[in-house]
């Protein structure tokens, strides 16, 4: 999750925000789990395996801030689901932050944002994390689960074979499905196409 540094480093009072693709995946996953749920965010955080600090941070948000973060979570899911629109979607997620290159740390791209707005920090951290991962690893770095009728976001591994499943449960169900289809002599049907969001 995005951590706020204790020192202010910019002349205008803004602080640096580091990119976090795992945060982006957690928010996008929560959106697909039914954001906002009736017992949100505690129940949704539990179902989507959020760390305690993220659940507490989101639980403390006001209703308008929560609605803003919900919109962000939907846009983050679309970054995973719509490869042809990724650049536009990431730009839409960063209107409240400034991107700067830190030359003294090896030309690292970071974002800076106003210190008081936690939703801007979460949004900026998530979007910057996905942007960096795409720049480093290409389009295959972000995908949707290969499970039957599952469209949870998946952050592919950086080494070894690319991850295709959102969870071990989906991977196991996929293996069982392939095994049963092979026994019947029929190839498994592909997962239904993911609906495009407006």
Structural commentary:
The protein has helices spanning 21-32, 42-47, 52-59, 63-81, 86-93, 118-137, 168-184; strands at 15-17, 98-102, 108-113, 142-144, 153-155. It has 198 residues and is mainly alpha-helical. It has a domain at 15-142. Strands 1-3-2 form a three-stranded antiparallel beta sheet. A hairpin with an 8-residue loop joins strand 4 and strand 5 (153-155). Helix 4 (63-81) packs antiparallel against helix 5, helix 4 packs parallel to helix 6 and helix 5 packs antiparallel against helix 6 (118-137). The two termini are 28 Å apart. Residues 1-10 and 192-198 have low confidence and may be disordered.
Range of helix content: 40-55%
- Order of the strands making up the biggest sheet: 1-3-2
The overall pLDDT average reads 75
Oligomer: single chain
* Radius of gyration using CA atoms only: 18 Å
How far the N terminus sits from the C terminus, by CA atoms, comes to 28 Å
């Amino acid at each position: 999750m995005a951590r706020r540094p204790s020192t202010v480093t910019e002349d205008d009072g803004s602080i640096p925000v580091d990119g976090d693709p795992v945060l982006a995946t957690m928010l996008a996953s929560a959106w697909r789990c039914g954001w906002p749920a009736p017992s949100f965010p505690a129940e949704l955080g539990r179902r989507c395996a959020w760390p305690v600090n993220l659940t507490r941070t989101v639980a403390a948000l006001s209703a308008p801030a929560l609605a803003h973060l919900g919109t962000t979570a939907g846009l983050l899911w679309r970054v995973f689901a719509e490869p042809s629109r990724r650049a536009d979607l990431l730009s839409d997620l960063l209107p409240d932050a400034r991107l700067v290159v830190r030359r003294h740390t090896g030309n690292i791209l970071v974002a800076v944002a106003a210190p008081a707005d936690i939703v801007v920090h979460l949004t900026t951290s998530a979007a910057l994390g996905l942007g960096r991962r795409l720049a480093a690893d290409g389009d295959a770095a972000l995908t949707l689960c290969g499970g039957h009728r599952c469209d949870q976001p998946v952050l592919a591994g950086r080494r070894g074979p690319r991850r295709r499943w959102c969870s071990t449960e989906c991977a196991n169900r996929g293996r069982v499905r392939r095994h049963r289809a092979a026994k019947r002599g029929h190839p498994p049907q592909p997962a239904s196409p993911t609906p495009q969001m407006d």
